[in-house]
Structures are given as structure tokens and as C-alpha cells.
Amino acid sequence: MTAALRTPPRWGETLVGSHKIRAACRFVIAPEVAAQAVADVSDALRAEGFDPAEAPEGVVVLRRGNLIGDTILNGTGLTLITKRLGPLSVKAIVVIHAAPSAQDAEVTVSMLAGNELAPVIAEAVDAVIDRLLARGIPVAGPGWTRSVDLPRENIGHPRTAREHGLPR
User: How many domains does the chain have?
Assistant: First the structure.
């Protein structure tokens, strides 16, 4: 891994951590553990009520809730007490993928929708990073930022995701 990179800060330690916004986390790990890291993030979010959605090969897309539930719950202020209602919960869509290179792999977890669930998604991702570090796997990278601030070629960027037909 590139020596200039440092362990990514946790969601709460970043500027996006104090807001419920569509955020993205990028972290760099060894290529041989990248697929497992993607699976671990997917499993953590599935435990939070996310379900798989159709996605291109090599990309995991998870969704939770729907537009009707999101509109009703956000419009009435009930989101504070109803985040875990399943199909009527607040809408969220997350894209997860790894981009391997010869010496490392960059894993991206990006929220395409889900401002209200940003803390839930961030806790799951940060927990996976903590488990990787606990197993002695070096983790580096920029960490959390807004999804729209991802490089344009990254499939986690909202515009690029839309161009690839990912749900929104």
C-alpha cells in the first residue's frame, strides 16, 4: 500500500459525520482481502434490513425502504421512531465495490439515497474497518466524504451510478 495513506477516520471524525447526508467511504486494503471486505460490508448492512438489488457484475447494490414510506415518514416526522420498520422504512440505496490494482484495492461504499439512514450505514462500514484492523489487516485511504465528491469515474458517484443504470 502507498505509505502516504493513513488509516481512514471514522464517520463521526469527519465533516460529513455531523450531518445526515449522502456520504461515501473509500478505503484501501490488500487485494486478496477486498472481496471479503465487500462481503462483510454487505452482510453488515443486510443485518440492518437492507436487501440486494440488481447490479452489474462486481458491484453490490443494497436497498431498504421505498419512496412511499420515505415520503410518509419524513413528512410526518416519524423517522426518529420508525427506522427499523422494514418495507415501510426510510429509503436508502448503497453501492459497494472494490477496484483492485497490482498492489492494493480501493473499496468504496457510497450512499445513492438515504440521508436519514446515514448514521446506520456509517456505523456498519466503520465496524467492518475496525474488524479488518483488529485482524491485523492494514487499512488506509481517504475515508468519509460526500458521495458527490467521489472521483467521477467511481461507480459510487451518483451521476456515474445513474449512467450505469443503478437504482436511485
Answer: 1
Q: Is residue 75 part of a domain?
A: no
Assess contact for 56 and 164: CB atoms under 8 A: yes
CB atoms under 10 Å from CB of 105, counted, come to: 21
The three-point CA angle 130-131-134 to 5° equals 85
The boundaries of the domain holding residue 55 are 11-62+92-163
pTM of the predicted model as reported, rounded to 2 decimal places: 0.83
CB neighbour list of residue 59: distance below 8 Å, 6 or more residues apart: 95, 96, 97, 155, 166
Tens of pLDDT, residue by residue, the chain (168 residues)? 444 446 888 888 888 877 788 999 999 999 999 999 999 999 999 999 899 999 999 999 999 875 554 454 545 555 444 444 444 457 889 999 999 988 999 999 999 988 888 899 999 999 999 999 999 999 999 999 999 999 999 999 999 999 999 987
Identify whether the C-beta of residue 38 lies closer than 8 Å to the C-beta of residue 95. no
* 42 domain-assigned: yes
